[in-house]
Amino acid sequence: MPINIPRNLPAKEILESERIFIMDETRASSQDIRPLNIVILNLMPEKEKSEAQLLRLLGNSPLQVHITLLYPVTHETKTTSKNHLDEFYKTFREIKHLKFDGMIITGAPVELLHFEAVDYWPELQEIMDWSKSHVTSTLHICWGAQAGLYHHFGIDKRELSKKCSGVFTHQIIQEPVKLLRGFDDIFFSPHSRYTDVDLQEVVHHPELQLLSYSDEAGVYLVMSRDERFVFITGHPEYDAQTLQEEYERDVAKGLDIYVPTNYFPNNDPSGQPRKTWRSHANLLFMNWLNYYVYQETPFEWQ
Q: Which residues of this protein are catalytic (predicted)?
């Protein structure tokens, strides 16, 4: 089954060129199927790129998925046009009366700020509180994961001595968990962040379970014991070139930045990186959609 997205969303053309099965709202309305309703709170600056990355993963499923895009109205974005937001996005006020089967909260380039210093933090707190009663399962990514761990469980982030950037190996900690079904013992995922969360705080928190860890990048996958919240500290949704684009952007700014670890061939930035985490990313999102959204949500979500 396809993902159901607005007809004119720019990501539609990208996904169609990759032969990902999608349909627009007009065709979807003619099918007598109860789709999974997923809301994506997109906090990334280049929203069109992150839309394509996430929709690509959500489209690799036998389930029909209807997407609602959400942005924080209390933040003025400078990298996405107002026309794009007006046409394809909703505000929290417009959807807060609804219930959703799943929610994704993306990363954001604000990790060096204290959470309370982020201009849309009060709005994000309201949305995260609302998710406890209006969303079956919420998936938090990178800074979104740090924000969720802080808001729901009181675990603060800490600044790293240098940016954690690259593609790292990860190992499984909790094998019987459904989210990890089909995972290899060792798998890859990109990270791109200046902060992390303390391993011991996660391990010893009675309401959390550590699912996956990297010797180089630290905590990767965490889930609440009631299985309502999933936290991913990396970026499995990234394209092959995303870390390269971030690295070149930082170099152009004159930042003292390291070459992303285990990313470029022979660590040479002139080479073309390969995407070694595609299988893991697809399996992670499929397991989440199936076991924590589809299998858990009621047919009539009132």
A: 142 (acyl-thioester intermediate), 235 (proton acceptor), 237
